[in-house]
Amino acid sequence: MDSNTLIAILGGAAVVGALFYFMNRGGGKKQEPIPQQQNAGSQGMQLQAYERLALLVDRISIPNLLSRVSSEGLTAREMQFVLSRNIRDEFEYNITQQIYVSADAWNAVKNLKEKNLLIINQVAAALPVTATGIELSRAILETLLKDPKADISALVSEALSFEAKKLL
Q: Which pTM value belongs to this model?
């Protein structure tokens, strides 16, 4: 586990801990109903979170990622690192959105991230050490063409859209 992942995990744990503290600090007091205006603000924050996660899904979908990241002049291993780092950075940038969305929606996004990393790493491992970044990109796209079910980004996007529409 690298230091960035550890920091993200600790930061997430701190946010969750603070959330539980503030939710429970009222003790046994009766909670007042949430005013309609405040509830509408909360719903707006949830919708924004779904929007950000939809953008994240689009940015880490493998075809979009490959079109955005230049493989020119890179070895396959360097390209593997760049693609993996890009996915992790995008995910970590949006990690706080999980507190606004359903567990199912967040799990779908996490599964997409993990599956994309797995595809990239498996394809890279199958290439010779002398392969170029362009060859890795091509091999990844060929893998997705051979198995259309491998790219689950469209399914995750649909799930996020469905969840967001329930809020409207």
A: 0.75
